[in-house]
Amino acid sequence: MAIQLARVTRDTPDLLSLQNSYHGSLGTAMGACGIHHCKHALPETSFIHHLPAPIYDKADEASIDKLVEDARRTIESSTSNKVAGFIFEVSERTSKM
User: Fold this and answer.
1) pLDDT tens profile 35-84
2) Mean pLDDT, rounded, for 2-21
3) How far apart are CA 20 and CA 55, in angstroms?
4) 49 torsion bin: left (phi>0), alpha (psi -120 to 50), beta (else)
5) Is 56 exposed, middle or buried (0-12, 13-18, 19+ CB in 10 A)?
6) Do the beta carbons of residue 2 and residue 19 sit within 8 Å?
7) How far is CA 7 from the centre of its chain?
8) Which residues on adjacent β-strands are paired with residue 85?
């Protein structure tokens, strides 16, 4: 539901998501995780652009800067310069929270 609302209110279908992040176990949520065997050929999983996820417990300023640059390049090259949202979740196994 959140994805659909973001797409409607931002008037674009494009979303950014981190690879190998867990977003849930149903259709669109699985497609957002960026793992090839979790993607389904569903219309709502189209226009999800995946960014390489940093290693959270070793994240430093350089890796964060690289993620921001990857996001900027993806937005410029793969979208109309507008995205509906950015989906990310820290995996429990890599989180120090």
Assistant:
1) 666 666 677 778 888 888 766 556 677 878 888 899 999 999 999 999 99
2) 87
3) 11
4) beta
5) middle
6) no
7) 14
8) 15
Give the residue from 95, 96, 92, 97 showing the smallest Cα distance to 22. Answer: 92
Q: Is 12 exposed, middle or buried (0-12, 13-18, 19+ CB in 10 A)?
A: middle
User: Structure tokens of 96?
Assistant: 């120090």
Q: What is the pLDDT of residue 73?
A: 94
Tokens of 95: 């989180």
DSSP structure class, residue 86 = E
Element (H, E) at 15: strand 15-18
Quote the pTM value.
0.72
Give the length of the chain: 97
DSSP 8-state symbol, 53: P
